[in-house]
Amino acid sequence: MNNLNLELSKLSDSRKDAPNLMGGNEPINLITPDQLNNPPQKPQLDPNVVARVQQEVALRDTLHNIKKTIVVQSGKGGVGKSTVTYNLALAFARAGLKVGILDADITGPSIPLMAGLEGQYARISNRKILPTEKDGIHIISMDLLLNQETPVIWRGPLKIAAIRQFLSDVKWPPLDILLIDLPPGTSDEPLTVAQLFENVSGTIIVTTPQKVATHDVRKSIGFATKVGMPILGIIENMSSLICPHCGKSIPVFKTGGGKELAEKLGLVFLGAIPLEPQVVIQADEGQPSILAESEFSRAFNSIAQKVAKLLQIPLNS
Ligand SMILES: Nc1ncnc2c1ncn2[C@@H]1O[C@H](COP(=O)(O)OP(=O)(O)OP(=O)(O)O)[C@@H](O)[C@H]1O
Ligand SMILES: [Mg+2]
Predict the structure, then answer these.
(1) Residue of 73, 76, 82, 276 best suited for mutating to test ligand 1, as the one with most atoms within 8 Å of CB
(2) CATH class held by domain 48-310
(3) Closest atom, ligand 1, to C-alpha of 74
(4) Whole-prediction pTM value?
(5) Of 119, 123, 158, 275, which one has the greatest count of Cβ atoms within 10 A?
(6) How far is CA 144 from CA 91, 118, 254, in A?
């Protein structure tokens, strides 16, 4: 024991029985030489927690540029979520809004293909990913970040990490509306998006008319309610086929299932989208202009008006 420690040890012993001058009966606890030599370690910060906090901050920073966020979802696959997301974005852009799409389908992204951005990569500036602009829509998708020939096979936790990462690394321009295209179902991606976007303005549920679809779609309605996402309404896609010869409407998958479901659940019915053979060409070749004067486009313009009204966004037309 060195001199200082010896003195401290004596002092500590001599004060053990000293009265507490602060008024209490408890003896005063003096620091012991042991404590002096081994001060308590500062708690180490968990690097995962630090990274998570940094991501949250970056995310908040990038999202403050976005006025409204709409999530497009459905419990069912292949009912037209991506088609609705993309064409609704086009309708908003035509009406003069600044629009973005976040393609949150990590394993099966389809928005870049629909937009004619196949084979392109997003630009990176100052370590931030810049959304790729096409036809007035700012798009971010896994397809714009990875080699598109490589299938993305990720387990749940990795998918969640990827969504968090690529959301916090994107630098969005100022947007009136960001549309988020979700993969089918109510699992990892929808939940992550719901957690990350605390203030989703609303969700649009897409269904096709037949019972098989509307039954599954109820799950996404339940999900939205559970995570507190306001439901803007239901869209019935592939509602009927307008015969290109006689102009009559043919109910290929029956018709009216989406409207019925909305009425049953007390939700807004946003509109019916017809089956339009040209859509497949648009989706495969990324040519939105071929749909400019169709029943299909008019249906989207009408839905865009309704959604804008619900969210109190002024439109040009
Ligand atoms: N109204 C429509 N008229 C004609 N074809 C359509 C229509 N809506 C969607 N399609 C076509 O149906 C297919 C599936 O559409 P889409 O990819 O939008 O569905 P999805 O619900 O996003 O699918 P997934 O669950 O795989 O994400 C595409 O080939 C698309 O072009
Ligand atoms: Mg899709």
Answers:
(1) 82
(2) alpha beta
(3) 21
(4) 0.81
(5) 275
(6) 23, 8, 37
